[in-house]
Amino acid sequence: MADLRREYRNIGCETLDAFLTKNKRMRPFAAEALVAAGCDAEYWDEVHQSYVNRNLKIFDILVNIFTDFEMAGGKTMCVYENFGAVLSSRESIGCFASGDVDLSVNPDEDQIAIDALKKNGFNLDARSDHAPVSTKLLLPFYNPDTLEGKGYWLNIMRKPFCRNFMLVQSKYNKRLSVLRASETEKYKDTPVQLLNPTPMVYYNALHFACEHHYSASPGMALCCDVDRIVRARELNWETLAKWSNEDDAGLRIRLALDVCNHFLKTPVPLEVFGKENANYKKMRSRIIDFQNNVLVPQVGKLARLRTELASDDKPMALSLITRLWRR
After folding, report:
1. In terms of pTM, does the model score above 0.90?
2. Deepest in the core among 143, 223, 235, 266, taking most CB within 10 A?
3. Is residue 23 left, alpha or beta, with left meaning phi > 0 and alpha meaning psi from -120 to 50?
4. 36-47 residue pLDDT tens
5. What is the pLDDT of residues 170-215, one digit of tens each?
6. In angstroms, what is the C-alpha Rg of the chain?
């Protein structure tokens, strides 16, 4: 906290908030931390509370949708990725700033979920504020009237990750279908459903590794998602390592958690995932700039392809050949 207060004095409230407003996903996390550190606590508490109020409205929308989904016989829909992680941690609902919430549901209940969304004013639409994503990966639904006319997006994830460039998702997808039907919990006393903490961390770590290449925007916000679940909930680390091996995740889970451990001191028993080999150490140094203690962005398709192939923890030629015939 002393380090945070010292850096805060050097930067100043106005400059920091201008930066955080541009990097909006970090703003609610930073606001909460600054309140705890006693840095212009009244101002930052007001900032954080604005996210709490907004997210409670989003959550009320989800309650209505999940209620309608259950009443129609649906069982497998879950809140996924970032908002799922915030809810799973059971900590402040204000630590979320995204313009959408991702939902995951088994394919045989897709239509039940779509009907529940439509009943609550969310209709399939095309986004102009994001790069286009194939409908084989994601279905975006928009309600322009919600949040007092500001509008909001809810997505149905059709695959675990919104990326199809050189990414093999078949094993991740098969496991997720099983977990949605067997490893879920309700959020408090509501119909809103989440993956249990262990699968929630598993898929958030894979999301960080596969979709964001360990360092792409929003970067540390994704580490915060994982960190909060790990600190607040009980996980079965042996099961998580077992899934990683069975799904041929390579070094993705270990490295994603290692990044969290390095920057946030996330209490992860990395030894459960085995010893670091030469490839792992090389990948770690490619992702983390140890001299400046920052994440290294994997800029451009070539850099991201190298990161993806090396994450298999196999010879790169073999990883590439594998992707030429696997689906």
Report:
1. yes
2. 223
3. beta
4. 999 999 999 999
5. 999 999 999 999 999 999 999 999 999 999 999 999 999 999 999 8
6. 20
